[in-house]
Design goal:
The complex is a heterodimer. By secondary structure, chain A is mostly helical. Chain A has a single domain, classed as MetI-like (MetI-like fold), CATH 1.10.3720. Helix content of chain A is 73%, strand content 1%. A two-stranded antiparallel sheet of chain A has the order 1-2. Chain B folds into two domains: 129 residues, no CATH class; 147 residues, MetI-like fold (Orthogonal Bundle). In chain B, helix 3 packs across helix 15 and helix 8 crosses helix 15. The longest helix of chain B has 37 residues. The chains are: A mainly alpha, B mainly alpha.
Chain lengths: 322, 298
């Protein structure tokens, strides 16, 4: 009796399962064209994004090119620990943090200020012109920027020329050759290249502020400075917080194109950052496992920083990105 | 405009004057470096080295450009750069747009999953070395394919395009479906033409980034077979050997005597920058819309 019941129940279950399968099959058949198209995207993202993520596993092995992973020796965290025992490690971490830190402070505030000042321009045409000019440098490559910097700041360049003629210096400054100028040079060129472009997003946010607030402000007797302080700045607060979270997340990405192009062996003590270090050790010296370990650590810390700042921001200000 | 809500006080007017002055200085700082490079490129190299060249070429010459076109592989580099921009932009537009379309079909069951897989790539990646090893394993080293295949689908472009597609009425695609149109046709014939503004913005981003990229060239095309313009400029900039070769050639030819590495570099820089500068007035109206769409979605 019981057997029959279980049998009946299982047949019922089976028919339900079959029914569901049939439904799924029907659905897949209806969506067959979309799945066909989608399969290209999925194949691509697996190969070009997820296979490299899997490749992080190399950092736990003594991997050499030409050798299979299964033949490589498992070394655990050896390379992760090795990085911290190197005398270079702290230098690189310092450079990375200083360069990003400058970017997250001066580099972060300057586009906000620029947007506020551009917003105060009264003539629409002039405003448009200034905006267009300000983001021009964003569209040229770092190689072009480096070339311009070499020409203008070199010992025969126009900057030294003008400084000498003005009597401020007696002999040309070696701005590119001396390490002590490097952080300033890098931050300045980063701002020059990116400030206009970064300000677009703030200008868009300013344009989205309710105009009635300004009317109300005028009734309450706010001046121009008061409006900028009490209405415009609070109005772009969500945008500022959002971009700051993203900025914190890339704290360990201090850029590398700039360093590779502007840095010289003389400035290495100041320009070497995590990303250039990974390039030098991983690609140029072929220490794949070690460089993967260093790169992975930096990526994981970056991800953790985004998640932590995001959570903090959600708690404190109610804004979050994820 | 909101400025009209404020009384025009004296302090306000003083601020306006300083603000305009500040903007003029800013514009000068943004434009002058390019101008400086331009006049150096049109000036006699030996004369430039004497200094004092500020706003106008002193001894006008075309020798720098002449040399670059005659003596180097610049034309070949330019051709490869253009090919890269065209192929890279067309493929990424088509495929990232297709991806955006697929993820906006509301009844498609794989839509969330696909979107999720791509969004993760915005926050985390395998990094430089694993990607390098993958490209090596796929036999993409020293090929032209390495310029467009790894950037075929982009999560960022997907976000931009799909946020635009969300605002299109579903009925458009639905009625075409009833008429027996297949999905690829719906995308190409109905949806894509309506998305021209966002495609234009993405095309600008993609074209500029393809024109400007150089790191993947030295990373994946170390043989120099597919060197782009940017890489030629980099060689003149950093490669001591290349500069030495230049100097040797110079000594052999009387008419090249007046060139200096600096003037040749300036000419090359202008050749690399010029396409951006010339197309800038045309494309600049497109990216404004693009970046603000991105701001909303991020």
């Amino acid at each position: 009796m019981q057997e029959i019941q279980t049998k009946a129940a299982s047949t019922k279950q089976n028919t339900e399962l079959l029914d569901r399968l049939r439904k799924i099959r029907k659905r897949l058949y209806r969506e067959r064209e979309l799945w066909f198209i989608n399969s290209f995207a999925l194949a691509w993202v697996i190969i070009f994004a997820y296979v490299p993520m899997y490749g992080i596993i190399y950092s736990f092995f003594d991997y050499f090119p030409g050798k299979k992973l299964s033949e490589s020796e498992f070394v655990g965290l050896k390379y992760y620990i090795e990085f911290f025992t190197l005398p270079d490690a702290w230098l690189i971490i310092r450079n990375t943090l200083v360069i990003s830190g400058l970017g997250l402070t001066i580099g972060f505030v300057s586009p906000i200020l620029l947007a506020l000042f551009i917003n105060e321009i009264k003539s629409f045409k002039f405003k448009r012109l200034i905006q267009t000019i300000s983001y021009l440098p964003h569209f040229v490559s770092w190689i072009v920027v480096a070339s311009i910097i070499f020409t203008m700041l070199g010992s025969e360049g126009i900057v030294n020329d003008v400084l000498m003629k003005a009597g401020l210096i007696n002999q040309p400054l070696s701005i590119l050759g001396e390490g002590k100028y490097f952080w300033g040079l890098l931050t300045t060129s980063n701002i020059w290249k990116g400030v206009g472009w970064a300000s677009i997003i703030y200008l868009a946010a300013i344009a989205g502020i309710d105009q009635e607030l300004y009317q109300a402000g005028a009734v309450d007797g706010l001046g121009r400075f008061g409006m900028a302080w009490h209405i415009t700045l609070p109005g772009i607060r969500p945008t500022v917080i959002l971009l700051f979270i993203l900025g914190i997340g890339s704290l360990l990405n201090a850029g590398f194109e700039q360093q590779l192009l502007l840095g010289t062996p003389m400035t290495r003590e100041y320009h070497e950052v995590i990303d250039t270090y990974v390039y030098r050790y991983g690609i140029q010296l072929g220490r794949y496992s070690f460089a993967t370990a260093v790169g992975f650590m930096s990526a994981i810390i970056g991800l953790a920083l985004v998640l932590i700042t995001n959570k903090l921001s959600k708690k404190l200000t109610d804004y979050s990105i994820i | 405009m909101r400025a009209s809500y404020v009384k025009n006080s004296t302090s306000g007017r003083i601020f306006d004057v300083f603000n305009v002055l500040f903007m003029v200085i800013l514009a000068f700082v943004m434009v002058y470096p390019f101008w400086n490079q331009l006049i150096v490129s049109f000036n006699d190299g030996v004369d430039t080295a004497r200094g004092g060249l500020y706003f106008w070429p002193r001894e006008f010459t075309l020798d720098n450009y002449h040399y670059m076109f005659e003596k180097s592989n610049l034309a070949k580099g330019a051709l490869i750069s253009i090919l890269r921009v065209v192929v890279g932009t067309v493929t990424t537009l088509f495929f990232s747009g297709l991806l955006a379309y697929v993820t906006t079909v509301k009844w498609f069951s794989g839509r969330r999953f696909t979107r999720f897989l791509f969004l993760i790539t915005l926050y985390f990646s395998g990094g430089l070395v694993p990607t390098y090893l993958l490209i090596n394993k796929l036999n993409l080293m020293d090929t032209f394919t390495v310029y467009w295949l790894p950037s075929l689908f982009s999560a960022y472009y997907m976000l931009l395009i799909s946020s635009y597609m969300y605002n299109l009425p579903d009925a458009l695609a639905e009625s075409a479906r009833i008429d027996g149109c297949n999905e690829l046709m719906i995308y190409m014939k109905i949806i894509a033409p309506l998305c021209i503004p966002v495609f234009a913005a993405v095309a600008v981003f993609s074209a500029v980034s393809h024109w400007n990229s150089w790191f993947d060239v030295i990373l994946y095309n170390s043989s120099g077979k597919w060197d782009t313009l940017q890489v030629y400029l980099r060689k003149i900039l950093l490669d001591v050997e290349q500069v030495g070769k230049l100097a040797d050639e110079q000594k052999q030819m009387a008419e090249m005597r007046k060139l200096t590495p600096q003037s040749i570099r300036a000419a090359t820089t202008m050749i690399v920058t010029l396409p951006i500068m010339l197309s800038y007035p045309f494309f600049q109206r497109y990216f404004m819309s693009g970046i603000t769409i991105g701001a909303v979605k991020e």
